[in-house]
Amino acid sequence: MQIIEHPSAIYEYCDSLRSRGKKIGFVPTMGALHEGHFSLIRKAKLENEIVVVSIFVNPLQFNNQADLDKYPRPLTQDLDALEHEEVDVVYKPSPESMYPTGNEVKISFGRMAEVMEGKFRPGHFDGVGVVVTKLFNHVIPHQAYFGLKDLQQFLLIQRMVADLSIPVAVFGLPTVREDSGLAMSSRNQRLSDIGRSTAASIYKGLLKGKSRWDSGSNPEETKNEIEQFYLDTPGLEVEYVNIVNPHDLTEVKSNHQQSIAICVAAYVEGIRLIDNLYLRQD
To answer: From the CB of residue 49, how many other CB atoms can be counted at a distance below 10 Å?
Structure first.
């Protein structure tokens, strides 16, 4: 397993691979790896000859300095895990090498970034767009893999790639969950055992909403069912519950759309967690 730290070095290495006809799969991460990341890596290994995994905690996408400071960074553990997964290349640039002159250019995603995460984390997706574009430019992969736990992020990256004609195929893979149903996330490492138990209620609320939906309830009734369940859960502070079209994130107001998802953000022990569940998928 090779470890490369500088943008020019990863570019030269991957460019040489492409020139030799090698197909490159890319999994961008912020480290603190878990089974969700490993599922992306294994899929990339099946579909590509070379797999590159990046580890970079991107400061541009944090609108809360304390959240950035507390983000887990178990680098030695991550590298051991990537070696075990037989990853070919780890790209771990520093903030200084990624943004040597700061960052003035922004990527605006428009209306799709103004709801849900974009509403409550101003500037977040500007930072995501910049870092993903830079990583794609450095690694020049054929295919890139993202988890659908971050559904809004995936949709925006998919749209960015299409609108800006970036020659990378992007794929979203299903959320991987702990036995309790809690969506796997690097942030889960910061939860106590009690906090993990409370956080598992996020998925339970989504399942209650799906049950209500499957029984014939409309979007408003379904949303009310979920919100009430969360209100009745001690230690859980809900930020939003949205029922949306998962293609363009517009609010769903009827039962007749072909594709519908519930998206949730909540705090447990001061740690912000997100999750989603499809009610109907076309």
So the answer is: 14
pTM over cut 0.85 = yes
Please state whether beta strands 143-147 and 169-173 pair in parallel, antiparallel, or not at all (unpaired): parallel
Q: Which residue has the tokens 């809360």?
A: 64
Are the C-beta atoms of residues 2 and 48 closer than 8 Å to each other? Answer: no
Distance CA 73, CA 223 (A): 36
- Take residue 155 and report the two structure tokens written for it: 């949709």
Question: In whole angstroms, what is the distance from residue 64 CA to residue 214 CA?
Answer: 38
- Beta-strand relationship, 143-147 and 260-268: unpaired
Q: How many CB atoms lie within 10 A of CB 4?
A: 21
Low-confidence ranges of the chain (pLDDT < 50): none
Helix (H, G, I), strand (E, B), or coil: what is residue 268? strand
Distances, alpha carbon 216 to alpha carbons 210, 225, 251, 262, 277, in Å: 10, 13, 18, 16, 17
Spatial distance between the Cα atoms of 150 and 92, rounded to a whole number of angstroms: 22
Residue from 6, 34, 37, 84 carrying the catalytic annotation: 37
Residue with tokens 């790896």, as numbered in its chain:
33
34 catalytic? Reply is no
What count of other Cβ atoms lies within 10 Å of the Cβ of residue 122? Answer: 12
Tens of pLDDT, residues 34-93: 999 999 999 999 999 999 999 999 999 988 888 889 888 999 999 999 999 999 999 999
CA torsion sign for 87, 92, 98, 100 is negative
